[in-house]
Amino acid sequence: MLFIRKRPTGLRVKQLRNALLMLGILFSACSLTPAPPDPIYQIVTNTPQPQLAPDTPVPMLPQATIAPDSAAPLPTEIVTPGPTLATVPGAIGPYIFADDVDPLTGETVADPAALNRRPMVVKISNAPPIVRPQSGLNAADLVFEHYAEGGLTRFSAVFYSQAPERVGSIRSARLIDYELVPMYQALLAFSGASSGVEEYIYGSEFAERAYKGVLYGLPYYWRDEEIEVPHNLFTSTAALWDLATEEGLNDRPNLSGMAFLQEPPPDSDGETSAIDIRYIATSVRWEYDAEQGVYRRFSDGEPHYDANTDTQVTADNVVIIFAEHRFTDIVESQFGDSMSYSIEIKLWFEGDAVLFRDGQRYEGRWVRPTRESMLSLRTRDGELMYLRPGNTGFQVVRPPSQQDPAEEGVTVS
Best label site of 49, 152, 180, 289, fewest CB within 10 Å? Predict the structure, then answer.
């Protein structure tokens, strides 16, 4: 049995949806490709990673590298089925979780009833720097940072075990959310989207679970008048979950795919105290705090804080996700003759990944064989890769073959 998926192009939503609802399969470790001979990131010892100054002019992503090309032939990719992977003693997940264990963090929750709902993907701004500190990032189970346009990034934060009353600022959805929402069988909280992205969202299987902020008022969304428009829209996850329950859309899903282990696996690829990720128009640094056992986040050279708690953003795990990026023909914005196109990020099947936990790094692969599959991690040998129980920050970047080394890259030290 084969699962075939073609790269989407244009707005062929119904065709894409039909293709993605084919028979599900189990992913085979045998389908994982071997490690490339060249490193996927740079390792340094004492050389600090250059930081992008906040007032640096914002360049565009290089159009020549991933320019729209709707006439190009669409590649066909195949994943074959395989056996279920074994777990090690003490592992949490990835297939079965206790009723009081959050399958997105591997942690036991104080109130198991908090998990009797769907996860919620919330679209949070990260540009310009005045949107920092954002509200609620430390309460998310998972946070995906990805390219929006203009070389800048945006967050898709996945909330499940915690329900902060103020999250934001809320901005518009992107094509990556068309992949993340079914991945976690989630609700979607967003301010709106370009017409092309909205056609994907409202033509999808989760259309009724998409809560567009401009269509709602209090208590679901509101604007903070002390903050500049359009950076002042916020949401309450608790209120949106209540609304979804009233509409009969908030059933607890069966989530599986992430594996956790309290003790760090012994087969690490070396100690790492800092991770620097250079996007074209912004930079991120995670520094390992050995005393607390967490990674502390810095953005554009400054500590990154959560406005709800006035504490620095931290993560128990940091995962670098290398995924192909491609401009579509969807226009996100236009200023004069300059247009920004929506970026398709290929978060399906598999790609290179690097996990950082407990001051160690582990090189492997991310896998997602079907649309409904949660993104999971594997070693180079195809075995399960174990996260530390806790929250995870995913940094989605372009693979080295697509990067401009003068402007992008991942450096660990």
Answer: 289
What's the confidence (pLDDT) of residue 333? Answer: 83
| CA pair distance 2, 287, nearest whole angstrom | 42
| Strand-pair category, 409-412 with 274-278 | antiparallel
For 129-165, write each residue's pLDDT tens digit. 999 999 999 999 999 999 998 899 999 999 999 999 9
The continuous run of DSSP H or E covering 181 comes out as: helix 175-183
Q: By C-alpha distance, which of 196, 206, 214 is closest to 342? A: 196
DSSP tag of 206: T
CA of residue 375 relative to chain centroid, distance: 9
Lowest mean pLDDT among 8-12, 191-195, 200-204, 347-351: 8-12
Mean pLDDT of the chain: 85
Say which residue the tokens 């929250």 belong to. Answer: 391
User: Taking a C-beta distance cutoff of 8 angstroms, is the pair 154, 174 a contact?
Assistant: yes
Q: Say if residues 125 and 169 touch (Cβ distance below 8 Å).
A: yes
Q: Looking at residue 195, what is its pLDDT?
A: 93
399: tokens are 């693979």
Amino acid at 272: T
Asked if residues 92 and 227 have their Cβ atoms less than 8 Å apart, the reply is: no
Q: Which two tokens mark 251?
A: 């059933």
Domains in the chain (CATH in brackets) are 91-412 (3.50.90.10)
pLDDT at 39: 64
Q: How far is CA 242 from CA 36, 208, 251, 347, 401, in A?
A: 47, 15, 12, 30, 45
Kind of pairing, strands 302-303 and 294-299? antiparallel
| Residues 298/275, Cβ–Cβ less than 8 Å | no
The Cα 172–Cα 123 span in angstroms is: 7
Burial category of 256 from C-beta neighbours within 10 Å (exposed 0-12, middle 13-18, buried 19 and up):
middle
* CB 387, CB 360: distance < 8 Å: no
In whole angstroms, what is the distance from residue 41 CA to residue 317 CA?
18
Mean per-residue pLDDT, 310-322: 98
Q: What is the mean pLDDT of residues 360-365?
A: 98
Residue linked to tokens 């390219």: 147
Dihedral angle sign, alpha carbons of residues 76, 147, 258, 252? negative
CA angle, corner 345, sides to 340 and 351, nearest 5? 150
Q: What residues contact 121, with CB distance under 8 A and at least 6 apart? A: 156, 157, 158, 177, 180, 181, 184, 186, 187, 188, 189
Cα dihedral: 236, 392, 302, 123 (round 10) = -40
